[in-house]
């Protein structure tokens, strides 16, 4: 028996672990990266022209309650690039439904209903990027959950290009027992019986129809190709679509789509979770932030928790795999603790820690 986790930012209050998150509802083949062409002075893809609009909504998970949290009514605000700054506030009032005048050609306030809960959301009806400032766009959600303030954020990377830039975009959709489907969901739980991932190759945000698709999964021993298994991992649509059932996801997993086009390999990844598993991993990171300063070392001392009662479990062995952005293994270990230094981050750039807990049953 095993479960897994991937490091994310955590805020711990009163014994509860709230994992800040932001979910995106994306039309198939459309990603969050915006490409600016200085010759045409235009961004692609053009969000204003999309028949199905992009939405984003806060998705904060409480380990203590074992569910995703809806913010306190009227106790939240959206911000563009600067959390807490009044001039960057998107809504005209806390928890309101009206966007301030200067942002009304970019955003529309809306909601997303997921597993019986209704979350506040933003719908993009225009381009959030500015041709005069080609920095990445970050949208922040600051809200209170049971009186506790939590900040979530979602990014829209901005790239300047006049040539080809290829990326693999993965869209996720879940389905419940009644036949309903929900775009943007990446969690199997009591309401969602499966997740369907659809990969698309895009060039500067525009879909490319050609290409050969395969799916891969990150394991403790490395990248493993996913094969078609009925009721577990079902592959269809010429390889572009992967349907995951409960048996395919233990805790938090990372899946990748590989696309071969013109003899080049392109990769895209997505994290998926199963929250109705009876156990989960508290990663036990030594600092609250995932930003590591010069001279600092982050240490993980994980524990396995039972969701019911939030009780620490014993008899589990932990394995760690540290990977760079190209999915190469930097190092690995089987131990009770695992450390990552600032020097390693400086050498490799962003690193991802994959934690697996194993128990012989």
Q: What are the salient characteristics of this protein?
A:
single chain, 361 residues, mainly beta, Immunoglobulin-like, 3 domains, 6-stranded antiparallel beta sheet, 5-stranded mixed beta sheet, 2% helix, 51% strand, globular
Descriptive account of the structure:
The chain folds into three domains: 2-160, no CATH class; 166-274, Immunoglobulin-like (Sandwich); 279-358, Immunoglobulin-like (Sandwich). The chain is 2% helix and 51% strand. It has one helix at 342-348; strands spanning 2-6, 11-13, 16-19, 22-25, 34-37, 42-44, 54-58, 60-62, 67-69, 76-80, 107-114, 117-124, 137-145, 148-156, 158-160, 166-175, 181-183, 187-188, 194-203, 206-208, 212-219, 222-225, 233-236, 241-245, 252-261, 264-274, 279-282, 297-300, 303-306, 311-313, 317-323, 329-334, 338-341, 352-358. Strands 16, 17, 19, 20, 23 and 24 form a six-stranded antiparallel beta sheet that branches. Strand 2 and strand 3 (16-19) form a beta hairpin. The longest helix has 7 residues, at 342-348. Mean pLDDT is 85; it is low at 8-14.
């Amino acid at each position: 028996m095993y479960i897994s986790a991937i490091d994310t930012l955590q805020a711990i209050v009163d014994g509860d672990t709230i994992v800040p998150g932001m979910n995106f509802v994306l039309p198939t083949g459309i990603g969050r990266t915006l490409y600016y062409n200085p010759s045409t002075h235009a961004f692609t893809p053009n969000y204003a022209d999309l028949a199905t609009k992009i939405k984003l909504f806060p998705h904060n998970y409480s380990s203590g309650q074992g569910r995703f949290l809806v913010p306190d009514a009227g106790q939240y605000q959206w911000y563009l690039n600067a959390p807490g700054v009044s001039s960057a506030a998107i809504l005209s009032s806390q928890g309101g439904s009206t966007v301030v005048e200067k942002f009304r050609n970019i955003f529309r306030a809306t909601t997303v209903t997921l597993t019986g809960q209704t979350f506040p959301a933003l719908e993009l009806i225009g381009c959030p990027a500015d041709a005069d400032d080609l920095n990445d766009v970050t949208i922040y959600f600051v809200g209170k959950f049971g009186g506790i303030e939590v900040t979530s954020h979602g990014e829209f990377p901005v790239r300047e290009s006049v040539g080809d830039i290829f990326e693999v975009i993965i869209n996720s959709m879940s389905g419940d027992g009644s036949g309903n489907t929900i775009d943007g969901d990446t969690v199997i739980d009591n309401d969602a019986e499966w997740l369907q991932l659809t990969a698309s190759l895009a060039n500067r945000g525009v879909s490319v129809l050609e290409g050969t698709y395969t799916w891969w999964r990150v394991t403790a021993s490395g990248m493993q190709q996913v094969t078609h298994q009925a009721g577990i991992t079902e592959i269809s649509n010429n390889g572009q679509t992967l349907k995951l059932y409960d048996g395919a996801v233990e805790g938090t997993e990372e899946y990748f789509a590989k696309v071969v086009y013109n003899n080049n390999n392109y990769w895209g990844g997505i994290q998926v979770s199963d929250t109705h598993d009876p156990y989960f991993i508290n990663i036990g990171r030594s600092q609250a932030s995932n930003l590591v300063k010069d001279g600092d070392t982050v240490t993980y001392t994980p524990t396995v928790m039972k969701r019911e009662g939030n009780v620490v479990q014993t008899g589990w062995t932990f394995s760690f795999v540290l990977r760079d952005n190209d999915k190469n293994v930097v190092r690995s270990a089987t131990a009770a603790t695992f450390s990552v230094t600032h020097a390693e981050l400086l050498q490799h750039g962003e690193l991802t820690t994959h934690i697996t807990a194993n128990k012989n049953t």
